[in-house]
Write the structure tokens for this entry.
Amino acid sequence: MEQDVSPAWMQEAAVQNVPKRKLDFLQKLVFESASLSQKELLPFLMALAQRSKEEQISFSSEEMNAIIEALKKHSSPEEIRKMNRILKLMKKNDGRRV
């Protein structure tokens, strides 16, 4: 029988109050975005926003901060740079909403 072992970042104390389905959604995002270029990231994030609406998944500021903190503890410098780039794009995109 195969055991479902969560990645190390999902076991951090900071994310224990975040529902598992949200963490699973993000884990899928990490794998899907891993090979994207800078040019491909924005369309990917736009599609992700739509998918999160369809799946009724949203994150509070507290959840996002906890998740980012946990992810950064288990990321390489390159992964952290990519994460910061994605967060910057997301903030820029939030500013466009009316």
